[in-house]
Amino acid sequence: MCFFENENVSIAYAWADEQFDSLPKLAADLVRRRVNVLVASGGSRIAIVAKTATTAIPVVFAVANDPVRLELVDSAASPGGNATGINYFSAEPHARRLDLLRRLLPTRARVAVLVNPGEAEIMTATLRDVGTAANYLGLETMPFNASNNREIDAAFVDLGGAHADALYVGSDTFFQTRRDQIATLAARSSLPTAYPQREWAEAGGLMSYGLSVPNIYRLMGYLYRAHPQGRKPRRAADYPALQV
Q1: Domain annotation for the chain: domains and CATH numbers
Q2: Fewer CB atoms inside 10 A, N or C side of the chain?
Q3: Which of the four pLDDT bands, split at 50, 70 and 90, describes residue 233?
């Protein structure tokens, strides 16, 4: 069965506009409206809020971190409860993305890593995994923080003073929504940059090694249709359409 908006399906959108404190209220409002499914596509924070808001309505999420560790599901094999989703394991491509930079700049070694302190768990995991891969490849990494537009601009000013040879953009929902800004600043700085998703190239980014965000959304829809009560979370890597 195919769904067509305003014909046989109605979609209620709720936007936090970066006011994350409003997320519980937005989720509670959707629950009161008795929606058939809550789709949490904005990262782990939104997924946790959706799961907390209801134990009855199915929740479909897409997260980069381990959903068991986030307490979204009991286990990968038997999630239990009302939640299922996509775990796209953004940590896995770190070594590949860094190796692209190393091949592009074989005589340089200083890589700036842009992370968002507003997502502390993702930031910590990114710096840990990137650091491990960088040590193996013989690269030096330098963290730069940004959690709003002004801080992104400031980070690129600081990058110039730090004499970074390249930039590695962390996989973060906020950065995904600011890809035009970041890709433009990187191009103006003539800074070779590795991005987390394919869509960054459309914004003028140099290169990426990662998943396709639209395909993740399609898979979230598939999971609800196939398993409306939530069953086994799927790895994005299980789907050939998501491979680079």
Answers
A1: 20-88+212-242 (3.40.50.2300), 94-208 (3.40.50.2300)
A2: N
A3: very low
Structure tokens at 98: 């860094």
Predicted TM-score of the model (pTM): 0.65
Q: What's the pLDDT tens digit per position in 121-135?
A: 788 888 998 999 999
Cross-sheet strand order for the sheet of 110-115: 140-145, 110-115, 166-169, 193-195, 207-208
Cα(230)–Cα(241) distance, rounded to whole angstroms? 22
Name the phi and psi angles at 45, rounded to 5.
-60, -45
CA angle centred on 133, ends 193 and 174, rounded to 5°: 45
pLDDT in tens, 54-106: 998 989 888 877 788 888 888 877 788 888 887 776 656 788 888 888 988 88
Contact 168, 193 (CB under 8 A): yes
CB distance 160 to 30 below 8 Å = no
CB 168 within 8 A of CB 196: no
